[in-house]
Amino acid sequence: MRFRLAGADAEGPYERVFILSDYIQAVNLSVWTPGRDIAVDEMMIRYEGRAKETTTIPGKPTPTGYKVWGVAQQGFLLCWNWHRPGKDFGLAVVLSLLERLPLPAEGFGYHVFLDNLFISTKFALYARTRSFGVTGTCRINAGIIKDLLALKKHDDKDVIPWGIVYCYTTTDGLVSQVGWKDQAFVIMISTLFSGYKAKTERLRKRPKETSSKAKTSRAPFQGQPQAMLYIPIIADCYNYGMGAVDEFDHLIAQNAGLRHIERGGHQAIEHWELRTVLSNSYVLALRVNVPLPRRPINFRS
Fold this sequence. Notes:
Elements: H1 13-16, H2 18-31, E1 37-46, E2 55-56, E3 64-73, E4 76-82, H3 92-99, E5 111-114, H4 121-129, E6 133-137, H5 146-154, E7 165-169, E8 176-181, E9 185-190, E10 199-205, H6 214-217, E11 226-232, H7 233-241, H8 244-253, H9 266-287
Helix pairs in contact: 2-9
């Protein structure tokens, strides 16, 4: 399939596909009403040609290409923003994506899972003023309480036992800061979860002997390759909720397609958008209560 929507005179790859992009996002929001929990994360569209819009992130499954910020739920990509290198929009990326979602029902709001690129205590407080909650892992410069920072530094010696949870709140009581010893000491910020007591049982796999913090992280398994262990609700919800964008990425990776290669990076973006339609259609079909089609009649039988 080959077509052009914005004309050859468009200045960049994003401008050449913006009509198709806006239309697909509008359809996405018309057929899927988001629930409470959503995730914002980055994606990469593979493209290794010459274009000033491309980005290289070492260590990623797709290290070079166009970076996209997307908001998703249960593997369904709702809408996205293009990333332009050299322009640091910061937290405005999250806000612009959330503002494009339909307003939640009266008395309710969105709960957004974020990675450590965006979340901080200051942003969590601001999110409350915009009527949405946030949960995510954070960096040490995110306004963390000194006690948690000291614990994280202390864990460099691998002395904190696995599973211990430390819970703190800001002085105004509006933001929770939780430290949890998993394979490493993880610090999380949330305006929804407190971290106190609430845990759930999950099947966990034993880390390798060569993994970091192996001494404490392997101890709960008592020599078994896997075990049912209790983990904090905040960590469990984050593990499942934050993966919404990754679920979408995995689905479109299974349908790479046969893109006709020509000059111009807009073709890579165009094909990604078409695969987005296929992936979202698949997720939508899984979630709706529609009976399977009847088995076709074999007229030769």
